[in-house]
Structure to design on (496 residues):
């Protein structure tokens, strides 16, 4: 059937480090003066510069901070057994693939197993051996080995993992003494320009510490995760740093290093970390076995310069609400289409990703305070915090029989399912969740994520209705199907 279109850390100056941080700036200023030379423009400020006056000032470094935090950062080694078929030497020949396709390799290849090994980093956050790391570091691992800063080794169990935030929690086995642990900071207090340390095990060379500043906040569109509001840093982060610590000048964890922007495979000075406030929420949920997030029940878009002008805003900021689900927290809290949400609990939001992130990091108790602009007037709204509901019921079903949907797993989309699979929570309709190999549904080119709109001219609004239409067409040979895929409506015909 052919459808036609209709991969960081900031340091803040505190009283504890105040005695040595000014000296770092003094040394840097002295170096600049030397470069400028006697006739340089630096002469006008030469009175503010001086050479170190003692050996103590010359020896100032970040070493005390590293000694305080590095023992809590660990190396993680994983092993994963992968099953695959041995491929015939003819398997990649287009001539044979034209006739046999995937079945050619299966027919001539024998199943075999191979072991994949990978490495990453993690952070001890509790002296009993609780570790946070990235989901992608331990995903699918059959064996997890953790090596501490002092070269002690432990086996670890996976407590839980959350692909949507790229976070995972491990627990070391047979811990017989208290382990060094890093304290949580507050990622909402981080500002661009703050000093940070990135600690991890890049390229497997051993624990490495790099320094830099926070170069951006609330970065989105970096990875495929749903909840994106990354801390960006120029502290060097390389492969193997994943799951490592982003530490502030107080020695507290403000982020878990997760991704880098690179064209070469190495650091280009653009690294990203999951904010620790999200880490805390996900960790508690994974440990308790009940990882659930609040939902808003509203959709919107970022405010552009043109929109700001039409809305009489002084500048482009906030999220313009375009749709609200009946009975949702947004609806019950008094949010209206056309409102501009500018802050959640006093923390500014400038795009839908940031709004989603801010709500998702709140506890499922009490209320959220939304700062809203409505026709130029500032309002404060209180919204209840609750999980997305299972309404309507999913009715997950695998379609059987002689029809184009045979082998497809379908369900009624609801807010809970939408949140679970990472699509907008206002989505509705009958969605394809999976398609079996060598099935009629696969031949009909149905894909996971397709919404079934019409079958043989009949509107499909529920799984029950789809079943009725499929049964009524049991003897049909020709089928006409309309689906919505990636926002586009596609119509195709299928002959059994």
């Amino acid at each position: 059937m052919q459808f036609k279109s209709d991969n960081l850390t900031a340091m803040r100056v505190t009283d504890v480090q105040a005695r040595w941080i000014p000296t770092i700036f003094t040394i840097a200023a002295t170096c600049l003066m030397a470069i400028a030379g006697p006739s340089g423009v630096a002469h006008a400020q030469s009175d503010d510069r001086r050479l170190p006056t003692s050996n103590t000032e010359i020896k100032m470094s970040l070493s005390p901070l590293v000694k305080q935090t590095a023992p809590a950062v660990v190396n993680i080694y994983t092993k994963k057994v992968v099953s695959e078929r041995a491929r015939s030497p003819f398997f990649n020949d287009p001539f044979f693939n034209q006739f046999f396709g995937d079945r050619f390799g299966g027919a001539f290849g024998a199943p075999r197993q191979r072991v994949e090994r990978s490495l990453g980093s993690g952070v001890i956050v509790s002296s009993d051996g609780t570790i946070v790391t990235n989901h992608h570091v331990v995903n699918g691992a059959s064996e997890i080995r953790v090596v501490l800063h002092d070269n002690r080794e432990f086996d670890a169990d996976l407590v839980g993992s959350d692909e949507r935030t790229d976070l995972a929690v491990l627990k070391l086995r047979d811990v017989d003494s208290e382990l060094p642990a890093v304290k949580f900071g507050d990622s909402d207090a981080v500002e661009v320009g703050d000093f940070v340390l990135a600690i991890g095990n890049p390229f497997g060379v051993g624990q490495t510490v790099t320094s830099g500043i926070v170069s951006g906040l609330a970065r989105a569109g970096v990875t495929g995760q749903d909840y994106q509001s990354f801390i960006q840093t120029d502290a060097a982060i390389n492969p193997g740093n994943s799951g490592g610590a982003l530490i502030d000048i107080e020695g507290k964890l403000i982020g878990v290093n997760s991704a880098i922007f690179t064209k070469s495979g190495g650091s280009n000075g653009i690294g990203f970390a999951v904010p620790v406030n999200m880490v805390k929420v996900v960790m508690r949920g994974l440990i308790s076995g009940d990882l659930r997030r609040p939902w808003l029940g509203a959709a919107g878009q970022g405010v552009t310069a043109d929109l700001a002008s039409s809305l009489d805003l002084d500048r482009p900021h906030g999220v313009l609400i375009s749709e609200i689900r009946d009975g949702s927290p947004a609806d019950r809290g008094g949010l209206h289409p056309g409102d501009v949400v500018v802050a959640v609990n006093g923390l500014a939001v400038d795009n839908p990703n940031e709004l989603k992130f801010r709500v998702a990091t709140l506890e499922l108790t009490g209320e959220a305070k939304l700062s809203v602009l409505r026709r130029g007037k500032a309002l404060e709204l209180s919204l209840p915090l609750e999980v997305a509901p299972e309404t309507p019921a999913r009715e997950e079903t695998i379609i059987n029989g002689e029809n184009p949907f045979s082998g497809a797993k379908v369900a009624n989309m609801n807010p809970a399912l939408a949140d679970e699979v990472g699509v907008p929570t206002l989505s509705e309709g009958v969605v394809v969740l999976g398609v079996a190999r060598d099935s009629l549904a696969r031949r009909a080119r149905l894909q996971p994520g397709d919404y079934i709109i019409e079958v043989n001219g009949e509107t499909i609004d529920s799984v029950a209705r789809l079943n009725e239409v499929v049964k009524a067409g049991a003897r049909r040979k020709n089928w006409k199907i309309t689906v919505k895929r990636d926002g586009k409506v596609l119509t195709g015909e299928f002959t059994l």
User: Anything to note?
Assistant: The radius of gyration is 28 Å. The domain at 298-384 is CATH 2.30.42.10 (Pdz3 Domain). Residues 21-36 form the longest helix (16 residues).
